[in-house]
């Protein structure tokens, strides 16, 4: 009896594992963005309508991208979400703070994806 053939780091399906990492990151980010809506609406000083819409829109995009990570362009779109979150810092400082937290996390997910696919046989 021979051992089952596995991919890099012993993964049977490295693509699914990498997509799972990316989807988990996007789900957490989307939930945090949704949780940020109430403080933006109630505790913000001044008119935060644009920041609220950006926050809600980015949350929806995060959830949509979770199911599209099998396409290479969706990983780039996830990076665009992080840049948009950082740019949202011009609307409210909390969006910049979330971009500083989730941007490096997404860059790490991209690093993991690249390293897993670089070691993929064939």
UniProtKB/TrEMBL annotation:
Keywords of the record: Membrane, Transmembrane, Transmembrane helix
Chain segments annotated as transmembrane: 20-38, 50-70, 90-111
Xref: Pfam families: DUF4233 (PF14017)
InterPro entries: DUF4233
Protein name: DUF4233 domain-containing protein
Organism: Dactylosporangium matsuzakiense
């Amino acid at each position: 009896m021979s051992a089952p053939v596995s991919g890099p780091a012993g993964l049977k399906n490295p693509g699914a594992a990498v997509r799972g990492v990316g989807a988990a990151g996007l789900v957490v980010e989307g939930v945090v963005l949704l949780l940020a809506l109430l403080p933006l609406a109630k505790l913000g000083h001044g008119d935060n309508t644009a920041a609220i819409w950006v926050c809600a829109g980015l949350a929806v995009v995060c959830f949509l991208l979770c199911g599209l990570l099998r396409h290479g362009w969706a990983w780039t779109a996830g990076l665009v979400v992080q840049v948009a979150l950082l740019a949202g810092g011009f609307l409210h400082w909390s969006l910049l703070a979330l971009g500083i937290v989730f941007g490096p996390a997404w860059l790490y997910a991209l690093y993991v994806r690249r390293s897993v696919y670089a070691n993929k046989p064939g």
